[in-house]
């Protein structure tokens, strides 16, 4: 179908000119080559039975009104259990009607937060490597971005070893700084920020009266002796933090596309108003089912039957399996402290001289495309999680998802075992 050429170059969407989408390129190439896909961040295992059963129960309610619109600012039962949960986590009183907003996934919560609270001319601080959409969300809101890269210590083997330089962080803040995004546990690196690191960020937020967008979708997925610290619990942060969460990551139901934002009423009023004007409301059935699931988890809290405890235990085992397979294949995995992903150094992997050296792309991008075609193995280049000025910091790394079944991980082992033995 042909269309008007007048509307081809939509600057607001494309940022001044249509750009290629590396995600689409990689996934298309992966499908064409039948490659094992460890690129995307979703689990391919079943969610907990009580969550699935809750959805089935809700869809069979005698009261058919559950299938119609619910409250635009969130289904009341869902808002109430979220306020109870976050009241406990943040040690605050959370009003379910004015301080909670269910959204269409955590991405919608992020979009709504940026659009509601960021204005043209504002500055936003991002810590790299960062979830790629943060950059576009800031741009669409009219903000400029100050980037603070995490720098790995020499001979780093853990995400804990990737740290920001305090002076660089301090230099990124000014009276123009409207917000900082704090993603912990972090995508793509799996870093869990410790208390001292979060306190350094909090001190600057308080000093410059800066908002904090706390992307905590992996809040339950913390491994070893690490603890997830909610930055909103630090002094001076409760009144300036929007806490963003995800049912998809909490209960391994990413296709349910339900997230939320929790924060102080004066900020949440803007989010609720924007969401009403743009999205209107969420999915009644999903929110009711998730309310039941969260209520069940509250009953199981602290027990071995709680999914909050079971999932990180299972995921830590999966992480350790894939780390072992990567090491055997002569990669240098960076052990993540949380989340779904392992970042691995590819510089020791044998790829010969067969990559397309003429392509004007970063080394890791060329490597990923080569691996898809020649090894039937799909991962994501780390450089795409950086700004242009810091992209070189990620060129020797790739991101690999370990939130997979044992069968999928076994297939990954087969590919990696053959890697350096095949011609």
Largest sheet: 8 strands, mixed
Shape descriptor: globular
Side by side, the strands of the main sheet go: 2-9-8-7-6-3-4-5
Give the helices and strands as they follow along the chain: HHEHHEHEHEEHEHEEHEHHHEEHEEEH
Return the structural class. Answer: alpha/beta
Q: Mean of the pLDDT scores?
A: 93
> Would you count the extended β strands for me?
14
Low-confidence stretches: none
Task: Describe, in short, the structure shown.
The chain has 423 residues and is an alpha/beta fold. The chain has 14 helices and 14 strands.
Architecture overview:
The chain is of the alpha/beta class. The protein is built from 14 helices and 14 strands. The strands form three sheets. The protein has an eight-stranded mixed beta sheet, sandwiched between helices. The longest helix has 22 residues. The chain is globular, with a radius of gyration of 22 Å.
Features:
423 residues; 40% helix; alpha/beta; globular
Write the layout of secondary structure elements.
Elements: H1 11-14, H2 22-33, E1 36-37, H3 49-59, H4 76-90, E2 100-103, H5 105-117, E3 123-128, H6 133-140, E4 144-152, E5 162-164, H7 166-172, E6 177-183, H8 195-207, E7 211-215, E8 241-246, H9 247-251, E9 259-262, H10 265-278, H11 284-300, H12 307-328, E10 332-334, E11 341-345, H13 363-375, E12 377-378, E13 380-381, E14 397-401, H14 406-419
Parallel strand pairs: 1-12, 3-4, 3-6, 6-7, 7-8
Antiparallel strand pairs: 2-9, 4-5, 8-9, 10-11, 11-14, 13-14
């Amino acid at each position: 179908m042909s269309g008007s050429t007048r509307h081809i170059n939509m600057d607001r969407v494309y940022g001044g000119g249509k750009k290629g989408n590396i995600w689409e390129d990689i996934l298309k190439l992966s499908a064409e080559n039948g490659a094992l896909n460890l690129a995307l961040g979703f689990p391919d295992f079943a969610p907990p039975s009580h969550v699935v059963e809750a959805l089935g129960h809700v869809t069979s309610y005698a009261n058919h009104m559950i299938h119609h619109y619910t409250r635009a600012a969130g289904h009341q039962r869902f808002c109430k259990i979220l306020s109870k949960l976050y009241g406990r986590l943040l040690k605050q009183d959370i009003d379910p009607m004015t301080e909670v907003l269910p959204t269409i996934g955590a991405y919608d919560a992020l979009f709504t937060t940026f659009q509601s609270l960021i204005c043209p001319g504002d500055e936003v601080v991002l810590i790299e490597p960062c979830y790629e959409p943060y950059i576009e969300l800031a741009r669409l809101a009219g903000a400029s971005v100050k980037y603070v890269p995490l720098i790995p210590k020499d001979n780093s083997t853990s995400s804990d070893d990737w740290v920001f330089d305090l002076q660089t962080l301090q230099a990124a803040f000014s009276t123009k700084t409207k917000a900082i995004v704090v993603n912990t546990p972090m995508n793509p690196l799996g870093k869990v920020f410790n208390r001292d690191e979060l306190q350094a960020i909090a001190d600057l937020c308080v000093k410059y009266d800066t908002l904090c967008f706390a992307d905590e979708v992996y809040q339950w997925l913390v491994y070893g002796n690490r603890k997830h610290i909610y930055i909103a619990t630090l002094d001076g942060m409760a009144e300036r933090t929007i806490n963003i969460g995800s049912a998809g990551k909490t209960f391994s139901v990413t296709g349910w596309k339900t997230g939320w934002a929790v924060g102080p009423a004066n900020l949440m009023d803007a989010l609720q108003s924007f969401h009403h004007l743009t999205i209107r409301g969420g999915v009644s059935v999903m929110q009711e089912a998730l309310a039941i699931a969260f209520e069940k988890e509250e009953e199981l809290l602290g027990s071995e039957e709680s999914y909050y405890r079971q999932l990180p235990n299972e995921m830590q085992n999966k992480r350790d399996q894939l780390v072992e397979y990567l090491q055997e294949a002569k990669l240098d995995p960076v052990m993540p402290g949380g989340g779904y992903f392992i970042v691995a150094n590819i510089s020791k992997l044998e790829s010969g001289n067969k990559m397309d050296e003429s392509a004007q792309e970063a080394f890791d991008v060329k490597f990923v495309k080569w691996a898809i075609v020649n090894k039937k193995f799909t991962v994501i280049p780390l450089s795409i999680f950086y700004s242009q000025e810091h992209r070189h910091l990620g060129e020797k790394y790739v991101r690999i998802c370990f939130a997979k079944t044992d069968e999928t991980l076994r297939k990954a082992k087969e590919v990696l075992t053959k890697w350096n033995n095949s011609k």
